[in-house]
Design goal:
The complex is a heterodimer of chains A (about 375) and B (about 70).
Chain A: H1 2-10, H2 12-31, H3 42-52, H4 66-81, E1 88-89, H5 93-110, H6 114-121, H7 127-147, E2 156-157, H8 160-178, H9 203-220, H10 224-234, H11 238-257, H12 275-292, H13 296-304, H14 308-326, E3 335-337, E4 340-342, H15 348-367
Antiparallel strand pairs in A: 1-2, 3-4
Helix pairs in contact in A: 2-9, 2-11, 3-14, 4-8, 4-9, 4-13, 5-12, 5-14, 5-15, 6-7, 7-10, 7-12, 9-13, 10-11, 12-15, 13-14
Chain B: E1 3-6, H1 14-25, E2 30-34, H2 37-49, E3 52-59, E4 62-69
Parallel strand pairs in B: 1-2
Antiparallel strand pairs in B: 2-4, 3-4
The chains are: A mainly alpha (about 375), B alpha+beta (about 70).
Chain lengths: ~375, ~70
Amino acid sequence: MSEKLTRFFASRWGIIVAGAAIGLLAPLLQKWGNPPNMGICVACFERDIAGALGLHRAAVVQYIRPEIIGFVLGATIAALLFREFKARAGSAPIVRFVLGMLAMIGALAFLGCPWRALLRFSAGDLNAVVGLVGLTLGIAIGVWFLKNGYNLGRAHRTHTAVGWIMPVIMLILLLLLVFQVKTGENGALFLSTEGPGSLHAFWLISLVVGLVIGFLAQRTRFCTMGSIRDVILMGDTHLISGVGALVVVAVITNLVLGQFRTPAFFGQPIAHSSHLWNLLGMTLAGLAFALAGGCPGRQLFLAGEGDGDAAVFVLGMITGAGISHNFTLASSPDKLVEGVRQVGGLTPYGMAAVVLGLIFCLIIGFTMRQKVEG
Amino acid sequence: MASKVDARGLSCPQPVILTRGAIREGNFPIEVWVDTVTSRENVRRAAEKAGLAVDVQEMNGEFKLTIRRKG
């Protein structure tokens, strides 16, 4: 039975079911209280967690997002049930940490991870098209490195307890949220009272949705970066059929819920129409994901099934969110001030960070082309 | 002239890249070692897509895939 289910989830229908579930549940989360066009955004939600812990002080984006907790723990449950939980670590963790940081800086230049790019697209935000082009460009560069021997080396099996560190961190975050821990007037947790961080579904709903998606994604290996990479690398459309299902179902759900806007660039919710930086921000994110072997969602699911290297990437992303907001590297959204359109986007520091990030990733790609050895 | 690919500990998509390289070289049967179910399914799919027969054995939580020409 277990083997039969495993084969189903590994099949094309399996990945389509996972994509469709995300396409349905993410717009619903928005209906239930999450921010506009942000039913789910792995990068934004990790950034909110960084804020809640006080790793940055952008007061409008601070909340412990139970979806992230659910993704990790849902994957843990699935991996345990199907006997796939396997503690492993040791494949260039410092490189993965830095790639996580750079991926977050790129994602916050665009204002979203690949999942949110798909969800923004599914609600009529045309900037998402620019972002997805950038994402594809970044992944294509990553594929070129892969074809030329780029490799971060082998991970090794390790103590089971190593694999449990990330799930336990997530459990602690959940307890902090549920008990609304506040260590003093100026102490953590910091929870937004206005802005996107204040918009959220009831925590238990978010957690359950996260668990369901985490479970399905662990079984099916859903990955947005991998979907584009596999098409470019070997013409394999397996993973991208899940992404296609996500978009189709999300468009329908948004239409039904009245969340679909007339397609346009300017003034989309929590988005900016500074095209060059939407493009380059996602190029940086895509390249970093490709070099690290997974989109931010996939890294959470891997961390849930015992992959210590993916856990390090996640911690890198959370740290990157702190740096991004503390150094004003994150984009600001478009604004309409007294009838005048103000296009949002990056500060000069943010622009410099994206360019430097790209250069950093290229150096990693060129210099880490070791041969695979035992 | 058999060939062997040791992809244990390597993360996605390395096992598939190495397997495809071995298939191109054409020294069948190809023995591929992986240590996650994800890699097992990815390698299996890549080989089946190339029109090859795949046989899987599990040993101590690791997998040996034997890839042969059909017929």
